[in-house]
Design brief:
single chain, 184 residues, Rossmann fold, six-stranded mixed β-sheet, 4 helices, globular, binds inosinic acid, binds magnesium ion
């Protein structure tokens, strides 16, 4: 039991669920990027994707490199504007390489859409997205279509496994719905 557990209304994905999800994604990615001529680079978006990245990279059994980007959205904090400023850019050159963006959760997808446009201008050989969670809410089309999706997420504010509320709860080992009284 953690002192953070009391702020969680219900658990959506347990540690065991998460392990199963990540193993399945790792196997799928390993198959897709197997063989000569592939040059896989995982790019995680800081900070939320860090936990997923750490697990996913160890579930992939083909050679790979990793790098990180940090971005911040302009404007209204509660809603993604899709206008993004790069806070930390890549250290590696991705030209001609097989890039896989690793994201914690996809909501509007606007941040990711910008990022994909920015990265594709650097001419990678391929560019795909692995999202741990996808809030694909009916009537609300995401701006991008991730090739690898861990699980679908209901329209609730979730924390844990890298996901935060005001920079807290990232270290919870499961994903849970935050009690509304915590953020309202
Ligand atoms: P998008 O541009 O609307 O797809 O915004 C996605 C980003 O919003 C994610 O990378 C998260 O940082 C954040 N986010 C969206 N939904 C949640 C949530 O339920 N919990 C925590 N962070 C979230
Ligand atoms: Mg994020």
């Amino acid at each position: 039991m953690s002192t953070m557990d009391k702020d969680v209304e219900r658990v959506l994905f347990s540690e065991e669920d998460i392990h199963g999800i990540v193993q399945r994604l790792g196997k799928q990615i390993s198959e897709d990027y197997a063989g000569e001529g592939k040059d896989l680079v995982l790019i995680a978006v800081l900070r939320g994707a860090v936990v997923f990245m750490g697990d996913l990279m160890r579930a992939i059994d083909v050679p790979l490199a990793i790098d990180f980007m940090a971005v911040s959205s302009y404007g209204d904090k509660a809603k993604s504007s899709g206008i993004v400023r790069i806070i930390k850019d890549l250290d590696v050159d991705i030209k001609g390489r097989d890039v896989l963006i690793v994201e914690d959760i996809l909501d509007s997808g606007l941040t990711l859409k910008y990022l994909m446009k920015n990265l594709s201008a650097r001419h990678p050989a391929s560019l795909e997205v692995a999202a741990f969670l996808w809030k694909d809410i009916e009537g609300k089309q995401a701006a991008v279509n991730p090739k690898y999706v861990g699980a679908h997420c209901p329209d609730a504010f979730v924390v844990g496994y890298g996901l935060d509320f005001a920079e807290k709860y990232r270290n919870l080992p499961y994903v849970g719905v935050l009690k509304p009284e915590v953020y309202s």
